[in-house]
């Protein structure tokens, strides 16, 4: 007699092997699909700021012609020192071209060394080599100061022009204040260079003038650059907040349940 209530084992549905989840598979997929935060954007912005000054190499290269001029002038005389400084500036320009580095700062440096050499040749004095840089500091300091007074701080203007972020920061009081402070930091740098070096020039202290030119170059610029980076970060945070608000406004809200 057959037992009708018994069911054969073959009637149990088999679970396909392929349908069974593999250990760690979901975790692997999550790790692949998980977006990686863009942590390099702030670094790229800081590098762009540094490139405004020719980069780290540019800050160092700007001191080489001055150092060469001082050393050769002490060892030989004014005329060889002038040619040595020009040769050093030209060599730096060629070196940057070979290394495919930005050459605009090097060309500007070569132009400045050429003017300084011409003034030194015309005045017949080694201190004349530094006169052009002294007056450039005065002009730059005046331009930066005026831009802060008229509430168009030059640091913010230059940064907006380089990155195409617009001038929306002018309506943000905190960001505009940050750019004002960064611009005034550069005013202090240029004013200090002018006052100290002009006094040394007037008192014929050529050795100390050369030391001041080197010591008040990229070290002071580095301090002002720190304030500039701080201001740019505040502007970057403002842009991020505005972008987030725009994205939220563009996202349609879910219909409320009736």
UniProtKB/TrEMBL annotation:
It comes from Streptoalloteichus tenebrarius (strain ATCC 17920 / DSM 40477 / JCM 4838 / CBS 697.72 / NBRC 16177 / NCIMB 11028 / NRRL B-12390 / A12253. 1 / ISP 5477) (Streptomyces tenebrarius). The keyword Membrane applies. The chain crosses the membrane at residues 55-75, 81-98, 105-123, 129-150, 177-196, 208-232. The keyword Disulfide bond does not apply. Residues 1-42 are annotated as: Disordered. InterPro entries: UCP010219. The lineage of its organism: Bacteria, Bacillati, Actinomycetota, Actinomycetes, Pseudonocardiales. Keywords: Membrane, Transmembrane, Transmembrane helix. Residues 1-23 have a biased composition (Low complexity). This is DUF3159 domain-containing protein.
């Amino acid at each position: 007699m057959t037992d009708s209530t018994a069911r054969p084992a073959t009637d149990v549905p088999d679970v396909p092997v392929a349908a069974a989840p593999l250990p760690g598979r979901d975790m692997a997929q999550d790790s692949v699909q998980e977006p990686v935060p863009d942590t390099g954007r702030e670094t790229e912005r800081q590098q762009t700021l540094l490139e405004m000054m020719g980069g780290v190499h540019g800050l160092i290269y700007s001191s080489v012609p001055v150092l060469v001029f001082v050393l050769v002038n002490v060892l030989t005389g004014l005329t060889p020192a002038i040619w040595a400084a020009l040769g050093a500036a030209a060599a730096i320009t060629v070196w940057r071209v070979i290394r495919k580095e930005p050459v605009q700062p090097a060309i500007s440096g070569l132009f400045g060394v050429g003017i300084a050499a011409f003034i030194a040749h015309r005045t017949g004095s080694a201190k004349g080599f530094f006169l052009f840089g002294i007056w450039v500091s005065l002009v730059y300091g005046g331009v930066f100061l005026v831009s802060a007074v008229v509430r168009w701080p030059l640091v913010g203007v230059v940064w907006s022009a380089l990155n195409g972020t617009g001038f929306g920061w002018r309506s943000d009081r905190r960001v505009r204040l940050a750019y004002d402070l960064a611009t005034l930091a550069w005013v202090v740098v240029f004013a200090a260079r002018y006052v100290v070096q002009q006094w040394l020039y007037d008192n014929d202290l050529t050795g100390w003038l050369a030391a001041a030119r080197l010591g008040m170059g990229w070290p002071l610029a580095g301090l002002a650059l720190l304030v500039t980076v701080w201001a740019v970060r505040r502007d970057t945070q403002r842009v991020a907040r505005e972008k987030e608000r725009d994205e939220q406004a563009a996202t349609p809200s879910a219909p409320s349940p009736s």
